[in-house]
Amino acid sequence: MIGPLQLILAFFLDLMIGDPQWLPHPVRIMGKGISRAERFLRGRPTSSSGERWAGVLLVLSIIVPAFLITFFILIILWTLPGTAGTIIGMAAVVYLTATTIAIRGLITSAQAVIRTVKEGDLEKARRNLSMIVGRDTHSLSREDILKATTETLSENLSDGFIAPLFYLLIGGLPLAMVYKAINTLDSMVGYNNDTYRHFGWAAARLDDIAN
Description:
Layout: H1 4-17, H2 26-41, H3 48-78, H4 82-98, H5 103-118, H6 122-130, H7 142-189, H8 201-210
């Protein structure tokens, strides 16, 4: 289980550094795994039911390793010998916990939109908004841009903080990593369109349940 000290340190670490590209990040690793697994599982045409079963296999191939790898990493970290081992283990656990939280990225993305609206550059504000929402932003007014920003902040607050915190508290880091895997799967394949309606069904439904 994650203790209060690790949670507090992880929260402030995320606020300070966010998700720098130069550090390995579990979500980026999951994203690459999802892309490769999708290419493998969708290598040839199949029926809608076959697509759904392929989507179930995709989900299992990501969430099961996410849990097991995190679990065994924790075992290794907590058994490192000596004071130095304890410090290294604590630092690694705090960092891994911070990767399940995305407050800094959420704030930064919203600020980028709000700042350009205040500057009167609505075209740039629409471009910035399009980076964090799935809707068409080309014709949005100033009020619509701010409304969409508020809505995505509310939605992403659950994905980026409330839900990860919930799973950290009830199941520790391995369960929080499973949630991040589910959330990443949904963001990559959980779309109700011709490409992913059947293949992404399992990921989308599981994300709904988890949230």
